[in-house]
């Protein structure tokens, strides 16, 4: 944890010193520990006298009604939250912008148990401006795939349920458009790099097994495999595309231990 949070906090603090604020994009696959790392990094920044907070892309998921509409218009696969196209990107942009200004900002919260955004009365309010925002999410900072890459399904779900490619074309178009406006607000791009997609699936399966043991609820292994199939294409693309252009790359092994750290010269985009 220290090998990630300390350099991340240091880079963010230096950037905030230069620019007045910093939005740090933290990309990490399912189960990689990005939420824990974001929270710990915020704590380090606060201990150093900086105002800081973590914001999750997950809290901007569209509700079931909006996703059902997309499912009817584009592809039934859009009923399931996860990939680009299932977030309220305009709201995310507005929140990041508002956190840079003086005044109160309400932060949406998504309840994964009910698969719905929580009522606004339950949202937390933050006083700005906030010097450092850690914006974490599984596809934060992702770029669209080349169109030629979309032709071939990456798993059985795509082959059987997206035979015409409508779902993956829509996801990619959303990533090329609205999501680039969102990710364009990042001042620093950090990546938690797993060893492979197969390890990511094992992490997610492990998470659900622990949840079932603790609460008696949670997805079965088969349900996890189905859910992760929605993330497979973009996760594999991120593993190929993101490391060379990230400002900070933290290489993880199968036990989520940091086995390598790569820092780009300068540490942030000009």
Would you mind describing this structure in some detail?
The chain has a six-stranded mixed β-sheet with strand order 2-7-1-8-9-10, with helices on one face. It is built from nine helices and ten strands. Helices cover 43% and strands 18% of the residues. With 270 residues, it is of the alpha/beta class. A hairpin with a 5-residue loop joins strand 9 and strand 10.
Number of strands: 10
Radius of gyration: 18 Å
Structural class by helix and strand composition: alpha/beta
Instruction: Enumerate the spans where pLDDT stays under 50 for 5 or more consecutive residues.
Output: 266-270
What's the overall geometry? globular
In brief, what are we looking at here?
This protein is of the alpha/beta class and 270 residues long. It is 43% helix and 18% strand.
Output the keywords.
270 residues, alpha/beta, 9 helices, 10 strands, globular, disordered C terminus
Topology diagram in text:
Blueprint: H1 2-19, E1 22-28, H2 34-47, E2 52-56, H3 64-73, H4 89-98, E3 103-107, E4 110-111, E5 116-117, E6 124-128, E7 132-137, H5 156-161, H6 166-176, H7 178-183, E8 188-193, H8 197-215, H9 221-241, E9 248-252, E10 258-263
Parallel strand pairs: 1-7, 1-8, 2-7, 8-9
Antiparallel strand pairs: 3-6, 4-5, 9-10
């Amino acid at each position: 944890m220290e090998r990630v949070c300390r350099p991340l906090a240091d880079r963010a603090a230096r950037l905030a010193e230069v620019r007045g604020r910093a939005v740090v994009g933290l990309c990490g696959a399912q189960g990689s520990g990005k939420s824990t790392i974001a929270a710990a990094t915020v704590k380090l920044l606060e201990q150093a006298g900086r105002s800081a907070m973590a914001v999750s892309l997950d809290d901007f998921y569209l509700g079931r009604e909006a996703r059902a509409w997309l499912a009817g218009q584009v592809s039934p696969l859009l009923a399931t939250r996860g990939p680009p196209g299932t977030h309220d990107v305009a709201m995310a942009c507005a929140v990041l912008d508002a956190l840079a200004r003086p005044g109160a900002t309400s932060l949406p919260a998504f309840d994964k148990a009910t698969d719905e955004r929580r009522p606004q009365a339950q949202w937390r309010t933050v006083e700005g401006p906030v010097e450092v925002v850690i914006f974490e999410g599984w596809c934060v900072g992702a770029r669209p795939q080349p169109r030629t890459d979309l032709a071939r399904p990456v798993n059985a779900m795509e082959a059987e349920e997206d035979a015409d490619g409508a779902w993956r074309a829509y996801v990619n178009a959303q990533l090329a458009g609205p999501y680039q406006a969102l990710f364009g607000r990042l001042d620093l791009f950090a990546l938690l790099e797993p060893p492979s997609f197969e390890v990511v699936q094992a992490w997610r399966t492990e998470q659900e097994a622990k949840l079932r043991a603790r609460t008696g609820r949670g997805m079965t292994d088969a349900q996890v495999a189905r859910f992760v199939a929605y993330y497979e294409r973009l996760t594999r693309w991120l593993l190929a595309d993101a490391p060379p252009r990230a400002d900070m790359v933290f290489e993880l092994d199968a036990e989520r231990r940091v086995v390598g750290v790569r820092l780009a010269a300068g540490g942030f985009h000009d």
